[in-house]
Amino acid sequence: MANPKRRHSPSRRDKRRAHWRRVEKANVMTCPQCKEPKLPHQVCPNCGYYNGLEVIKIKVKKEKGKEKETEGKSKEKEK
Ligand SMILES: [Zn+2]
Questions:
Q1: CA of residue 22 to ligand 1 center, whole Å
Q2: Is the pLDDT of residue 77 over 60?
């Protein structure tokens, strides 16, 4: 039967147990089209662009109140 040749040291055991809860951060980049945060190698969910081309068309909800809010936010980020 295959068995481990040596017992792991308490240090090695505790180092292993110290990282079980760790969650890796998502790799986020900014969209070159709309400057919104997006995941790399994926179509931007905000503007639908990928590699400088509009791949999918994003449905824009025609609610005047919400449109004004989004306009205000984009202006704030430009500054
Ligand atoms: Zn975008």
A1: 30
A2: no
Beta-strand relationship, 37-38 and 53-54: unpaired
Q: Ligand 1 centroid to 23 CA: how many Å? A: 26
Residue 79 binned pLDDT confidence (cut-offs 50, 70, 90): very low
Place of tokens 């791949």: 55
Query: Tens of pLDDT along 20-75?
Result: 888 888 888 898 888 889 999 989 888 888 888 787 887 776 655 544 445 444 44
Pair of tokens at residue 74: 């984009």
Distance 65 CA to ligand 1 centre (A): 22
Q: Could you give the CA distance from residue 48 to residue 55 in angstroms, rounded to a whole number?
A: 6
- In sequence order, what are the residues at sequence separation of 6 or more whose Cβ sits closer than 8 angstroms to the Cβ of residue 32? 49, 52
